[in-house]
Amino acid sequence: MENSEAFTAGQPGSTHLLAVGTKKGLWLGTSEDRENYTFTGPHFLMQEIPSIGIDTRGGRTRIMVGLRSEHWGPTVAHSDDFGATWQEPELGAITFPADTGAALERVWQIQPDSADRPNVVWAGCEPISVWKSTDGGEHFELNRGLWDHPHRSEWGAGYGGAAAHTVLPSPADPDTIHVAMSTGGVYRSTDAGASWIPRNKGIGASFMPEETPEFGQCVHKIARDPNHPEVLFAQNHGGVYRSANNGDSWEYIAAGLPADFGFTILTHPRRSDTAWVIPIAADYQRIPPDGQLGVHRTDDAGASWTCLADGLVQPEYNVVLRDAAAVDTFEPVGLYFGTRGGSVYASADEGGHFTQVLAQLPDVLCVRAAAVELA
């Protein structure tokens, strides 16, 4: 959860940073108007970048990236000078304790905590695990409560792997954390990660014998309401859902969408009841519906949806992955995403119009955006 303070594009100190992680490296762009960008990169050429965190707390900008090298393996590197130099611990930022018998496969998410918890950064990883850093993302410690959970043997691998891909610490309560995983669903801790309980009531799992089991769902992404931390949104492997009670139960809100399958869901950083999804035709037909890419926004908590596609190049048969979309904290809010075909789009008006800012990149795996001070 990056700083939710609103910035106006063009004002002093409000340069926009757009970070794009791909199968073959990282691109970093800066812009004053969120339409015209100057990019550097590729950083880490030929390394996979599945996760990015931009931490603007404490008066400095730290960019953290989850790296995956076929030769050197996975780790987390960070830069405090906008990619001019990078640092990583000699023995790795994330290393499994010897007694687990496990090795890190991929860092799926890097999530800075709220502004009043400086230096706390979370990571969700493959194999399914959650990690916490208290030094700004330089070193991480395994959360044993989730790792030693009795359900672990029953968590399976989604199509992309067995991963904790979303970590949502609550800004209202430091002891409350939500995690979403493939496959396992949503789990919640109310004791700072010491213990975890599944919170999936109402979320479907059509691929299982029981369609609404206690756990085992393949939840693709979850996001939190900015003003009511107990309100959550979820994009499932079939189904878009909303919870008004911290995940205790979920209601289906996908009526009005062209499809209820997809990977990503985003919420507005300041306005309640506003969320964006990018539908995919189906799990067996992984293309935008009818080959027409569209971002769909709700401003009434899922009661209705509006398709936003102005400026998108059509037809489009490449999908948007779970972390390949982001919002910023400017006013109006900007919306950004990249496709597996290597196109990256930016909107400076909440999706009203999109500009293609990059094209022909490798598969886009992660997109992050933030207001920064380049000085």
UniProtKB/TrEMBL annotation:
SUPFAM superfamilies: Oligoxyloglucan reducing end-specific cellobiohydrolase. Keywords: Hydrolase. The keyword RNA-binding does not apply. The keyword Hydrolase applies. GO terms for molecular function: hydrolase activity. One of its GO terms (biological process) is xyloglucan metabolic process. PANTHER family: EXO-ALPHA-SIALIDASE (PTHR43739:SF5), XYLOGLUCANASE (EUROFUNG) (PTHR43739). This is Glycosyl hydrolase.
